[in-house]
Description:
The protein is built from five helices and two strands; from the N terminus they run ββααααα. By secondary structure, the chain is α+β, with helices and mostly antiparallel strands.
Amino acid sequence: MRLVVNLARREPDGACSLLLEEKSDTILKTRLVSAGLTLREAEVLLWVVRGKTSSEIAVILDSKTATVSKHLEHIYQKLGVENRTAAANAASELFASTYCW
């Protein structure tokens, strides 16, 4: 589980609220798998979203950097994006559609 804090601005008065959410990695992985990724690709992408480098992800997942890079290639192709930033953004959009605020 992780706690996610979002700032929401209400229109038209501009009032702000903090939204606190507990998100389960299992739910997030399931959402990515339902979007066409393998479970391992979903794990790699979750770490990309958290800002980890390929070499850091390799250590975390007890893999090789080249293997992580290959997973990223597949992720980019499946999500129709060209780089890790775009992949992270696509994942964030999928996560946002999983939850209602």
